[in-house]
Amino acid sequence: MDGRADQTGRGEEMLLRRREVLKGIAGAGLASAWPGLTARLPGEEGAGKKPPAQPDLIRKENDRPGTRDWMLQNTRIDPKTRYRSPWIEGYCSRASVRAGETISFHVSTDPASPFTIDLYRMGYYRGAGGRQVQSLGPFSGKAQEDPPVGPNRLRECRWEPCARIAVPADWPSGIYLGKLTAEREGLQSYVIFIVRDDRPADFIFQCSDTTWQAYNRWPSQFSLYDDGKKEWFWGTDVEISFDRPYGKYCQILDAPLSTGSGEWFLWEFPLAYWLESRGDDVTYISNLDAHADAAGLLRAKGFLSVGHDEYYSTEMFENLKAAIASRVNVAFLSGNTCCGRIRVRPSSSGAPARRIMRLDRFGPRDPLEVKDFPEMEQFPWSSPNENTLIGARSTFPITGGADWICAAPEHWLFEGTGMKKGEGIPGLVGWEWHGDPAAIPGLEVVASGKTRSPRGEGAYTATIYPGPKGNFVFNASSCWWADGLSEPPGYVRPSVYTTPKGPDPRVQRITANLLKRMRGT
After folding, report:
1. pLDDT single digits (tens) 245-286
2. Contact at 8 Å (CB) between 335 and 432?
3. pLDDT band at 48, cuts 50/70/90?
4. What's the farthest any 2 CA atoms get from each other in the chain?
5. For 26, phi and psi rounded to 5 degrees?
6. Section 404-423 average pLDDT
7. How far apart are CA 22 and CA 37, in angstroms?
8. What does the alpha-carbon distance between residue 236 and residue 219 come to, in Å, rounded to a whole number?
9. CB atoms < 10 A from the CB of 127, how many?
10. CB under 8 Å to 509, separation ≥6 — which residues?
11. What is the average per-residue pLDDT within 464-473?
């Protein structure tokens, strides 16, 4: 938003140079690498410079005054659509953005109403959970056009932006919420985006936002899980766009107070809240950053997959494998991870990484799974087995719950927990998990048990295996791992098949042991 006249010519020159570079990259067959968000040209700010490490950044950030004003107070869901809030809803132009880059906000109010946007960074902040960083508006709201149904049932909004901002240099990497408030009735919803950086850090926290969008049914039934005939569809020829609001979460919880924020509050915020309460040196990225920026993964000692991390591109899979081969430690504090293979595509207007399409299922064909979802016969079944990355994989019946039962109490993972073999942490496994451990040399099963659900009994395995350079890969085998770490403001505990019991000192100590080993301390 710097409008100084003496920089205008230089800015136009840089834009032309960038276009030429991007044309060259695209011509080399690398257009999918999202170069517009990762490459910097000589002479641009930050080009050729290694960002400094800032190990105290998160601790200092969380010493700043916080607020709970980020929490929604007044929401409404249209019963005809089941998921959307047409009174006020919106989306951001980018999933992640660096300091100095521009992001725009696209909001619709129906009926028309003036509205405001209050921006917050999510963290610990002495228990408040967020810090307000900016207020925008009021704006003159209007009802923006619902997008037509395109090929592959694509719904791609082309709403006018109400505001564009250049992200300030003093906004640390993190998850940022825009609280939308319509003046007409005071109704509210969220927009959400990630501020990322390029600095070395102890831990990269990957948000599972390709999965957030895969399950996003806005405006009614238009997710990767609906082909117009079947509400829970698991095949090809469906596509979704990031250019649309996040509707109300559609699965195992009724959580209207999270509308517009994807699945962030449900499975991921408890981990971020806990990490930031400790002052851990953490930086945040989107799934799309892991897809585009392989080198960026190498700036951390540890990579964290969090919550429900189901949808990976081939690039994500290979980039994480390469990071492990390099030296990066990985903790899959997640379940159902790397199950569906997607293709990442630009929007119809050419904006990079704004659409995803399901192409295949990672892992081998499972006859019981195909029996449940016969549309899986459409898949080529040519993708690698995800257990070669994670240590285990999603197996039939995919869903279920269980206690997290210790299988290797002598392992350093359990140091200081006092856990004995066969002792379980109640309800911690859910609602999706990993089984079928890989035949990786040195892999150990550290927790295992039977899962229960109406669809049948399953077997989960939490695993750990050594990397090639003294590093390791841990698989917690549960979407609900973070429930055992903290209970931040507004958190809604899941309950299906089993119910986790909230913060548990054993889960906290196991996770602390992991982080300590990742740091090499």
Report:
1. 999 999 999 999 999 999 999 999 999 999 999 999 999 999
2. yes
3. low
4. 70
5. -60, -40
6. 98
7. 11
8. 20
9. 11
10. 415, 416, 417
11. 98
